[in-house]
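Could you show me some protein's one-letter sequence and the numbers that encode its backbone in two labelled lines?

___
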Amino acid sequence: MIATPSRSPRVAVAQFHCAGSDVARNLETIGSLISQASSDGADLVVLHETATTGYFIADALDRLAETDDGPSATQIAEFARANAIHVAVGMAIRDGARFYDAQLLFAPDGTHLATYKKCHLFSSERQWYAQGEEAVVVETGIGRIGLSICYDLIFPEFIRKLADLGADLVINSTNWIGDDFQRQVWDWSGGTVTSLARTRALENGVWLAMANGIGPEQGFQSLGHSCVVAPSGKVLASVGEAQGFAAADLDYDSDELERWRAIATYRSDRRPQLY
């Protein structure tokens, strides 16, 4: 049981450009960002998808994927403990003979709280990873946290499931990427993915923190715009396109939030028998 959990945590999202498959260098950057977020007073920092290795690692999974208690996870757990902060991070992991695109969550004492395995695999990811089969909401010292990775955010039913399981806050470790065609012809941009985060928060009445990568990788550009969003869809903090972090204070029980939810009765107004 979590004793007297905080109902008003400060939540940070951090983003950086992965140094290819240079795990040691990426861990060094992750450690620095965790320290910066902690110094800013954050209770939780969220980092992006496959943050220890970079995204395009299909031909190197056997070498780069680790168990969720392996060297990289152990190092990040130590970062969490040394900075007394919750940490969520995306990693490629192995479990037996299978590989998973995963999100790990650590407590401020370094305890490994959860491993979420990505349930919705995008495009060629299906050739690399096995699918996760479980929605995960974790009781923590800063409320109930629903875990998700990148493409999961496209599926409203999945984020609704996390809300229905009692999530106060949904976190998303992502690596939204685009090439010239996607960006120039279809305006697939940081603004678009921010709007997606805003919509998922709004329609479910939950807080949402999305952490993305930045920079080029194999002809694609990571879009950045990591953000923290209120249950109204209001963007409380955003990093833009630079390396760094942004943080916002949440209040799960404020009078203003109760007033908003009295107006925005979206979930109770659903008529699923018609859908």
Remarks:
- The longest strand covers residues 86-95.
